[in-house]
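Give me structure tokens for this 412-residue protein.
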Amino acid sequence: MRTSCVIVGAGHSGLAMSRCLSERSIDHVVLERGEVANSWKHERWDSLRLLTPNWQARLPDYSYTGKDPDGYMTMPELIDFLEKYAEVISAPIKLNTTVTSVSADGGKYRVATTRGNWECKSLVVASGACNRASIPAIAEAAPTSIEMITPMQYRNPGQLQEGGVLVVGASATGLQLAEEIHRSGRPVTLAVGEHVRLPRIYRGKDIQWWMDALGIMEERYDEIDDIVRGRNIPSPQLVGSPDRSTLDLNRLTAQGVRLRGRLAGFNDGKAQFSGSLRNVCALADLKMLRLLNTIDEWVTEKGIDAEVNPPQRYDDTEVEESPPLLMDLGKDDIKTILWATGYNPDYSWLDIPVLDRKGKIRHDGGVVDSPGMYLLGTTLLRRRKSSFIHGAEDDARDLSRHLSSYLDDCEA
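Here you go.
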């Protein structure tokens, strides 16, 4: 089978690109290993909500039209949103079609799948950046008696053993699951590394509103001094709760969650923690303060102080004077370790030399180091908003324009 372009993945990025290609009358097919929004359906926990407000849920020629623009979609709501979008744009999707290999052959790409092979002049990799849970090598030294689980496997506290839980990682996922598990009655210890602290609501508006208004999320990848670091910054400590509340380390501490430094390793049944907890938290507090100052300056500059709530400042993160560096897992009755340490993409099917030493695709703003190949849906791909649902539209329009020019050159 032949087509001008194959899109791998029917998540929000793949669907956005499909719409953009259709607008340009470029024939294409979208190959999806499972169902539309497959990861959201089968690889996320029950209580998860989007971290961005509903008014930001938009894709090319489609946006949220419900009655709760300031709320945060549940997983069933998001799945319904994406399924309806796929239907509205009549995306040419082949469901339950797993790509097993992609190879280059004489200026074209050969795409082998579980349901036949495709030949195309261009390829869009939109298979997602969260295909595999990232588990550090130190996990191999953990006591075998302790159950280990990742957020991709976790659904709710009921599946966990009774007893203590060590949650490793304090970004959005780690904080939300630490609170949920602690509320179930299980004692929780949270190992905290580098993190980004943000309030959910500031001066009466969602923090995402401020980021949008100030143009922060529009910053391009080629305007950032250290793009490698920029693409590895942890996700912000935000939660999309119905009450629009702020979830931070102070709230967890008040509830009884114990904070420890970054998990450094295991030895003789004991967990070892870094002594940098106070410094890491102080740095996160400082960066949040700088952002709030920037927002306040912008408000004053625009002359809209009277239109929003007064400035707010937040207590520094509370950290005990000398946080313990060791924890006896047996004595503390730790039964489960939950690795909230991020995700990695899975490009094992890509038989083209475009991967770096960390298994990431080499690209320049989504234009891959292989003629006619493009990447979508990863952190800071072209803009700071690239990994969010509302970031897919601009990226897809940019790259579909480049793809169209490439196909025109091929015909010339």
